[in-house]
Specification:
Layout (H helix, E strand, L loop, with lengths): L13 E7 L8 H12 L4 E5 L8 H9 L4 E6 L1 H7 L8 H20 L3 E4 L10 H21 L4 E4 L12 H7 L8 E4 L2 H7 L3 H7 L6 E4 L14 H10 L5 E4 L7 H16 L2
Helix pairs in contact: 1-10, 4-5
Bound molecules: L-Erythrulose and manganese (II) ion.
The site of manganese (II) ion has 5 residues, from loops.
Length: about 280
């Protein structure tokens, strides 16, 4: 992890920001402004949603980000899943298998730049048959995880709330879903926004499943960036310290209008908590 001469830089946690790659990213002024602001705020990297990763070469994205001193931490699959109607728990076998194939392509993409792959929305949405959806998602993961293991690429299955998906809503359920699969490459991804809805006690869950996550999404209860809602991020960060977590963190959320302004404001709160 790079540590910059910046009072907001965290020497302890590698902090990323989740965003979307614009189609014409090299020329997109707003995107360049955002990346410059992230660099100045001491961020380590970004997680990128890319509409269709086949449209760009991973090495080109990595080089572009390097121009801003940023790493590509994770390829997020949510936008691609929405654009192409992908679901790893699709009841139609052909559609489920197509989703597995597209997921494998994205693993290859991520592997080329040693990024991880986030599976959140790609798990599949709300289903009238949660047990069936879970069985189908498990079948898909059995096809995906060995492929990822061979490429030393971590798969991060995100525990998302019940209004987004009928499977893997809590960390406990997500860990159970991954049971018996390569635990080094099949991780769970906690997200404080989803945990605030689903976990009885998010601090206890983080402690119990400490060994199963390598990254964590920081997002407030109203889906704004940390500090804009009511989640106690001081306690979240302290809990991570207490359990000896030194992995990655990523800010995720919906900006109120001006993303750069909001991320700056969020970092005014977060940076002192992240500094040692
Ligand atoms: C993505 O990181 C996320 O948190 C989900 O809400 C999207 O499926
Ligand atoms: Mn998330």
């Amino acid at each position: 992890m790079q540590v910059r001469n910046n009072p907001m830089a965290s020497p302890r946690f590698a902090l990323s920001f989740q965003t979307t790659l614009p189609d014409d990213f090299p020329k997109d002024a707003a995107f360049r402004l955002l990346l410059g602001a992230l660099r100045d705020l001491g961020f380590w990297g970004v997680e990128l949603n890319i509409g269709d990763p086949r449209d760009c070469r991973p090495q080109d994205i990595r080089s572009f980000l390097a121009g801003f001193g940023l790493e590509l931490s994770m390829l997020a699959t949510g936008l691609t899943a929405k654009r192409f109607g992908l679901s790893l728990s699709d009841p139609e076998e052909d559609a489920r298998q197509k989703s597995v194939d597209r997921c494998r392509e994205m693993i290859d993409w991520a592997a080329a730049v040693r990024a991880g792959l986030i599976i959140g929305f790609l798990k599949g949405g709300v289903s009238p048959d949660p047990a069936g959806a879970r069985t189908r998602l498990r079948k898909s993961l059995e096809q995906i995880v060995p492929f990822a293991s061979e490429r030393s690429t971590p798969i991060l299955v995100e525990a998302t709330n019940r209004y987004e998906s009928s499977v893997a809503n809590t960390l406990e359920e997500t860990v159970a879903l991954l049971e018996g699969l390569d635990a080094v490459h099949a991780c769970v991804l906690p997200d404080t926004f989803h945990m605030n809805i689903e976990e009885a006690d998010m601090f206890e869950s983080l402690t119990r499943h400490r060994a199963r996550f390598i990254s964590l999404h920081l997002s407030d209860n109203n889906r704004r960036f940390p500090g804009f809602g009511s989640i106690d991020f001081r306690r979240v960060i302290q809990q991570l310290r207490d359990i000896g977590y030194t992995g990655r963190l990523a800010i995720e959320g919906n900006p109120g209008g001006d993303v750069v302004k909001d991320v700056r404001q969020s970092m005014l709160r977060l940076a002192p908590l992240l500094a040692t």
